[in-house]
Specification:
141 residues, mainly alpha, 6 helices, 71% helix, globular, transmembrane helix
Length: 141
Amino acid sequence: MKRVIAAAFASGALFGVGLAVSGMTDARRILGFLDVAGAFDPTLAFVLAGAVATTLLLFRPVLRRGRPLFDDAFRLPRSTQVDARLLGGAALFGVGWGLAGYCPGPALAGLGTAAREALWFVPAMLVGMAVQRVFNRGSRR
């Protein structure tokens, strides 16, 4: 279990460093990418292209290993169904991302730099997660 936690921590730290190096902890940069009719900043497109290329090249070979390096099994979503909950959650995520310029990863990395936006976004995100857990308990049996 310690190896799994250490691997998760190292992966998260590497992700955070990547976000910081690429400038993706700056909410103004994200909002600039979303502002296609104004001060458009294409930087995020290159970050997204790199992520998609990496996934396309490595996802299947990694799954062929049979199991992850530091755990007993892969933990992938079982459902492939696109339903109202998935679409609603994606829409809510997109609206929040567009309004704040943050999603969870960059927001947490932004805390490390005491970014003003992260200081209000992360507590609001945590409250939203708690509310979701309360509502989700009632819908699953």
